[in-house]
Amino acid sequence: MGREYTCPACRRVKRSEHVPSRELSFRERQIVQLIQQAKANKEIAFELSLTEGTVKEYLYHIFRKLGVRNRTDLALWGRNNMAVAS
């Protein structure tokens, strides 16, 4: 009574070994390129046929993925880390 009969290994929380990737998807790269052109969310949404909310979600995920804090940092990151498409 009052005793646990589960082994310590079974009680441990099992977490997946998923390591987040810093690699951007095609759509995320498109958004970074438009941010570099100083486009507003509304302009990005219109150009990519998305809603403004979807653009905001993409930006949130990009910021977290890359560890940047704002659009300016993102534009600088893009300039330094993305190949220029000709």
Any chance you could write out the topology, listing elements then pairs?
Elements: H1 8-11, H2 26-36, H3 41-48, H4 52-66, H5 71-81
Report what the structure shows:
This protein is mainly α. The protein has a domain at 24-81: Winged helix-like DNA-binding domain superfamily/Winged helix DNA-binding domain (Arc Repressor Mutant, subunit A, Orthogonal Bundle). 57% of the residues lie in helices and 0% in strands. It contains 5 helices and no strands. It is elongated, with a radius of gyration of 20 Å. The mean pLDDT is 86.
Task: Give a summary of the structure in a few sentences.
The chain is mostly helical and 86 residues long.
